[in-house]
Specification:
101 residues; mainly alpha; 0% strand; globular
């Protein structure tokens, strides 16, 4: 799935079937459901989930917590706009999904 196709699914009531929790969290965040998004990644032990978790805390304005999660994701703290970062994470996660089958 491309990022554009993923964004088109935002008109649905649920994320696309079979998407991993980090990508589902991005989907819910785009729908304005921060808490639902956070619940999906807060207990996931992957770097991808930590990256989305960092982004969520950045959206929330909790930069100290975001920095912690960027560290867990082994990624530098983002300085791009929130929209640009969402797009970057989405593109990377979709690319990983496509590469993994």
């Amino acid at each position: 799935m491309t990022p554009a196709a993923f964004k088109r699914t935002l008109t649905a009531s649920r994320p696309p079937a079979g998407v991993a929790p980090p990508l589902a969290a991005l989907w819910w965040l785009a729908k304005g459901e921060w808490t639902t998004a956070h619940n999906l990644v807060q207990d996931e032990a992957t770097r991808e989930a930590a990256w989305v978790h960092a982004h969520l805390h950045r959206v929330e304005g909790d930069d100290a917590n975001a920095r912690y999660w960027y560290g867990q994701a082994r990624r530098p703290a983002a300085s791009a706009s929130l929209d640009d970062e969402w797009n970057t994470i989405c593109t990377c996660l979709l690319g990983k999904t496509a590469a993994d089958g």
